[in-house]
Amino acid sequence: MNSVKTGEIVGGHGRWMAIAIEEAEQAGLESEVPVGAVIAGSDGELLARAHNSVIRLSDPTAHAEILALRIAGKKIGNYRLLNTTLYVTLEPCIMCMGAILHARVSRIVFGARDLKWGGAGTLYDFAGDARLNHHPEIFGGVLENSCKTLLQDFFSVKRKSVALNHGSCHKQASDLLK
Ligand SMILES: [Zn+2]
């Protein structure tokens, strides 16, 4: 369908994704949508780990990938992150894919697909677009179930709490009518 390779892959990617999942869990604890990212260097060193922090930072660009790109750039003293691999629990959105291409990240490994915003093959396939001058390798579906379950659990709890709040509003309203 596009440039995305799918399924579990060999080479220790699961180990890195597990760290990204830890970051995603931390985001969830902070009531942020649970998405985590890790950037690894070519020698297998951890350059950055970060989680979604849009609410905490009041910053619509504070997705896990963007924060990780910033940390890694500072760490290596270069805005180009050549020969790096970015691991992220949810497929990068269109904004993050733009930043990832600017940074020249070599490889993207993601867990769950993003049906609403996915820019790494699901909605848009920036990595496979011949008009752009950088084409990172993309692997999707690594530890997909764990990544997806985190998101599903987060949204199901959120939906329940919204329903409960509505319930209490209705109750207050009916109390007023007595
Ligand atoms: Zn994003």
Task: Explain what the structure shows.
The chain has 178 residues and is α/β, with parallel strands linked by helices. It has helices at 13-29, 64-76, 94-103, 144-177, and strands at residues 4-6, 36-40, 46-51, 85-90, 107-112, 137-140. Strands 1-6-5-4-2-3 form a six-stranded mixed beta sheet. Helix 3 (94-103) links the parallel strand 4 and strand 5 (107-112). The longest helix has 34 residues, at 144-177. The radius of gyration is 18 Å and the shape is globular. The structure holds zinc ion.
Quickly list its features.
6 strands; alpha/beta; disordered C terminus; 6-stranded mixed β-sheet; 42% helix; globular
With helices defined by DSSP (H or I, 4 residues minimum), what is the helix count? 4
Strand order of the largest sheet: 1-6-5-4-2-3
What structural category do the secondary elements indicate? alpha/beta
Strand content: 15-25%
Radius of gyration: 18 Å
SSE blueprint:
Layout (H helix, E strand, L loop, with lengths): L3 E3 L6 H17 L6 E5 L5 E6 L12 H13 L8 E6 L3 H10 L3 E6 L24 E4 L3 H34 L1
Parallel strand pairs: 1-6, 4-5, 5-6
Antiparallel strand pairs: 2-3, 2-4
Helix pairs in contact: 1-4
Bound molecules: zinc ion.
The site of zinc ion (ZN) has 6 residues, from helix 3.
